[in-house]
Amino acid sequence: MSLDRQASWLESFRIVPQQTLTPPQSLETRCCVVGGGPAGMMLGFLLARAGVDVVVLEKHGDFLRDFRGDTVHPSTLELMYELGFIDDFLRRPHQELPQIGAVIDDFSVTVADFSHLPTHCKFVALMPQWDFLNFIAEKAKLYPQFHLRMEADVTDLVIENDHVTGVRARTPQGPLEVRAQLTIGADGRHSKVREIAQLEVIDLGAPIDVLWMRLAKEPGDANLTLGRFREGKILVTLDRGDYWQCAYVIQKGELASIQRNGLPAFRENVESAAPFLRGRTDELKAWDDIKLLSVAVDRLRHWSREGLLCIGDSAHAMSPVGGVGINLAIQDAVATPTARRRHRATTPRSPRAPRISDPHDPRTPGVCAQALHWVCHE
């Protein structure tokens, strides 16, 4: 036998190692929360504090997202006070706004004055959302019932006999399956949970989008958060201490047209809306320095199905007008354990998800806020 034929013959007997499939990890818990945003993290904390075993799944490796909702209203600050850690919370970097104003051409008006509120904190706190979420995570981890899994991207629901009994997720360690008595969809306005669950979304429409950017703050600038209305343009400037976080309002879908006109023309539009920024928009070197927020205002026709409840933006996406989204999400988180206790008291053996409130009741805070947003958009 030639050497070539002998080598070929021996090769036919070579054992090729088969690719091994990592068996899925499996967890069991009372409640699985999908999404580590304000609603999900606050709910996870509150449940653990009440002695309920809870797993929170967050698809990212950290909370570091820029241009996310970070206007913490007095109602949320009052919750922090009631939980006993308002002083610790306010030691984190933040700005305090006792008033919010607007400038229409050159005329200044006060839009909101919080000094008369019957709360312990009579101001809005501006705090980067990642600092807010890290703070809640630190408090939650003090309870052994709280389990946070980062880089856990939920891909599917576990559904048995038309009842949601958990989720499946991808993690760096391999597949993960979490079985839970109750699953919470708190994964935002592009919720995968509500999509898989086939919950009907009512699109209320939003005629605007928002372009976010950072511009330098100079020593002589007034420390005011303002909406600026000039020559048909709207620019909101949020005081971040050492810079301005700016929101330039455009018509829905207008970004492509703005980009065709070029960055210099856009800079000029920003400066004409807020003349005090003249000369600073040169910091916008490329369109990558400007982030688009595609505004959506919608809500679910029904927030729940057997074994599943959606809260926060996954149940009712809000406009950025007024910065109410994070605060309504936290209200959902506060209401959920109360609704769960009330539901179990009346139907202790029922697996049905708790009903927070009628999502179409005009007294529901989310409905009220969405109605106000519709008026503001018009």
Give an account of the 3D structure.
- Helices cover 28% and strands 31% of the residues.
- The protein is an alpha+beta fold and 378 residues long.
- The protein folds into two domains: 25-70 and 128-204 and 296-377, FAD/NAD(P)-binding domain, CATH 3.50.50.60; 208-293.
- Helix 2 (38-49) runs parallel beside helix 5 and helix 2 packs parallel to helix 9 (325-346).
- It is globular.
- The termini are far apart.
- Mean pLDDT is 85; it is low at 12-20, 345-352, 356-360 and 366-378.
Biggest β-sheet description: 8 strands, mixed
In what range is the share of β-strand residues?
25-35%
Number of helices: 10
- Principal-axes shape call: globular
In short:
It contains ten helices and 21 strands. It has helices at 3-11, 38-49, 74-83, 86-90, 129-140, 192-196, 255-261, 263-273, 325-346, 365-377; strands at 25-34, 54-58, 71-72, 95-97, 99-104, 107-113, 124-126, 146-150, 153-160, 163-171, 174-185, 201-203, 208-216, 226-230, 233-239, 243-251, 291-293, 298-300, 304-305, 308-310, 316-317.
